[in-house]
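sorry for the late reply, my laptop died twice this morning and i had to redo everyting from scratch. anyway the thing you sent over, i finally got around to it. pasting the sequence first so we're on the same page, its 445 residues, then the predicted structure underneath. double check i copied it right bc i was rushing
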Amino acid sequence: MNALIEKLKEYAELPAIIWNDRFYSYNELFVKCNEALEFIQQNGVNEGEVVSLIGDFTPNTIALMFALIQNNNIIVPFNSTIKHSEQVKLDIACVQKTLLVDVTNDNYSIEGRDNLGEHLLYDTIRERKKAGLVLFTSGTSGNPKGAVHDFSRLLAKFNIARKSMSTVNFLLFDHWGGLNTMFHTLSNGGTVLTLRDRKPDSICAFIEKHKIELLPASPTFLNLMLMSEANKSYDLSSLKLITYGTEPMPLSTLERLKKAFPEVKLQQTYGLIELGVMRSKSESDNSLWVKVGGEGFDTRVVDSLLEIKADSAMLGYLNAPSPFTEDGWFMTGDEVEVKGEYIRILGRKSEIINVGGEKVYPQEVENIIQELDNIAEVTVFGQKNPIMGNIVCAKIRLASDEEKKVFVTRLKIHCKEKLQSFKIPVKIIIEDEPQFSERYKKKRQ
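ok and here's the structure:
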């Protein structure tokens, strides 16, 4: 962490953050970090305590994050939009104090909480005299799990200088993808551009205004942007790189994205809350084959399932069994195909639909359906059936009104041309409700 603090001084008057259309220099951020450290120490935040930090990528939220790391606290980040239903995560994490940042004016305050218990994993971090980080899985395919990290291991990679670009912090503050973008940008002298509104029109306007070079986003967001044609209403010529991850990318979306941005490099990323973000290299801009790994990561495939060994791996879950093999490999649950050094992610093992003994990957069926015109979103899932075990169902949101009978007929014809019979959806639900969470990630419950 000291190296990161030194870099703040080194970059001096360079712009570190743009928030509310104001530039904050690295010197200003350095001063805010010192003020935040003084604040938490004066308010009785002791080394090793579990502290939740509720905010966004505002100057003071970032400064408080740096201060808590310097103070060797175990940090539990939450978005400023934390819902009442998420309060249970504070209990799971045994949070002792809460730092709350008002994202409208960047003022902050502190509250105490009743200590509801302890966890053995925290003892390991305290014995090392390091900062800790607790991140919760999104829960889009199950109950959220709390992953406990030695923060120093996640931060180690930022000691290596890399190229930096002006970047939209699209991914959220409580997600390692979002924090990874922030730390990478600040450790290399780049500028963090903070958003309040993550709608496609707002993002595109922001890119045009600030000449953004890098857009890290989810496939769901990129699909919605293309569907809305927001990208056609703004000058996005400053973009050099679009990275996509957090969920599988439909090939049809990738092809449309390349057509819309022929001069922009497209790169698939692969990261997990339990491990961090790995370096990755797409086989080509319009290919879903990707090479993942890099320094500090080893990969292997066992029974078609991807396993990863990482220096930055979490210590374990707060509220779930260990997902590691006896020899220390993390079982991702992602089923993959292998082609030399490259892999292609087929989907989560837990999401595979068993139809009469045959495997159906929801992502494969979704890809085929999304080839059709007038598809805004589609989610494929299984439903229990007494004869087949399960049947394939598709929940679809149309881009514009269309008679259901006409749409279902052309969907069936298209699927029969492209899919084996057991993969064709038996039940088709058309609804107007969005199928994504506030993270712009497909909800699969």
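The chain is about 30% helix and 30% strand.
thats about all i looked at so far, will dig more tmrw
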